Amino acid sequence: MTRKIGLQLFSVLVVPLSVSSCASSDSQTEESANGVAQIAITQVPADVQCIQILAQGNRSVERLFAVTSGESSILTMTSLPIGTVEFSGNAYSGNCSASVTGQDPAFTAAPVSAQVMSGSPAQVTLTMRRNGRATVNVDFEDACLTEGTACTSESECCSGQCVSGVCAAGTLAEGPCDLYAAGNTPCVAAYSTVRHLSSGYSGPLYQVRSGSSNQNTGSGGTLYDIGVTEDGFADAAAQDAVCTNTVCTVSKLYDQSGHGNDLTVAKAGTAGGGPYSAMDDFESIADAGPLTVSGHQVYSLYMAARQGYRLPVGVAGASVPRGTSAQGIYMLADGTHYGTACCWDFGNVTTDPTVYQMTNAMFFGVGYWGRGMGNGPWFMVDFGSGIWAGGSGASTSTNSNLPSSNVPFAFGILKTDPNNYAIRVANLQTASDLTTAYEGALPQLLNNQGGIVLGVGPDNSNNSWGTFYEGAVVSGYPTAATELSVLQNLQAAGYGQ
Prior knowledge:
The protein is mainly β. The protein folds into two domains: 2-144, no CATH class; 176-493, Sandwich (Jelly Rolls), CATH 2.60.120.200. Helices cover 6% and strands 33% of the residues. The protein has three helices and 32 strands. The strands form seven sheets. Strands 14, 21, 23, 28, 29, 30 and 32 form a seven-stranded antiparallel sheet that branches. A hairpin with a 4-residue loop joins strand 5 (50-56) and strand 6. Helix 1 (176-182) runs antiparallel to helix 3. The protein is globular and about 75 Å long. The two termini are 36 Å apart.
């Protein structure tokens, strides 16, 4: 069962499968820009006598313990301008387990439901702890008024738009896919665990598997979709809410292009790709790569060896280039976390990892074939029969125009048409433009197969590793002007800030 969480503000986020949640518009109380939350806690089993409330204001965290004795309880919380929180309702201060007469601190876990009755807190979550204690978290930080709420100024509205006294629907800023579309080279597959890549995409960014293991090949646990906050960054708090005290893995990367080319864990390939290539891969640990982007705490897709994702076996991606059709790829990766084997790829591959076919994918790392300057890593090209750093000759050649990308935020471009290909790179934090390492004739004819892979080779060669922030496959051969605008968009996103 999959629960969609973090897609919009004011939804109740729930850990156990048996917990239900909803948001009520009929019982809303008067809201203020400072934040008011009224929560009805219902369906409390008799053995859950105490519910812990955590309310975070701008400068303080307050705790409230509601004594329920198996009955319903209504709690009202108000954020004051100074950042403190006031409570009213059936409340009890102190230690949750010790404050209830005869209460065993390790009482049995049981389902609890909560209902948000007013919409102004920034986030409300309901979770279950392993010792059976239910916890409701209310975060008032950056509280704002939602769409359809009466307002007097734009600063009160989450969308930043107050139209005729009512908060209007917000729109996400342009992403790389908007820029590619404007250049007539639309995204056909776009992925990120960090942020939205298209202003027109409204779905989740990725999916996590709570209750997983570090060697999960794609089964078990409970699935949760992770969406975006109001300004388009991944809702890491939603992930944290369902991954506390358990192992979480990334079970799916949602395609933000609108074509539905979602990626799940890669399946077994040929035996010739290394000791584990003929075995199914593992899902990556969801919280292994924390980072800050424009002040937002988010998670990268931090991948180890034998971790990879691809389209299901036998499936060619919708609108993904086939045959000799032109194609572009961009990727942002951590240039300080890279492997030295085959193959950490992103791009167009065979639909069957057990059958050799033509590859047209970006390789990142240090491999057995082509090289650039320095010690690497480098953005290169996996054409199936080798890894090229540029040129149309042997794949083992060294390209003196290809700089090393050993930087925290390495930006790479690969684009191909029936006769040519190009490799372009940049250091996201310092570049004013991209470096064209090669643009010229292909070493072999293209035959795009339409599969998509991330983190492993086309035959499931899974000996390498890396960190993926975002990337897309586009239809057509993008112009340098479009690629510069994409680079600038990523710089404006604030990676590392």
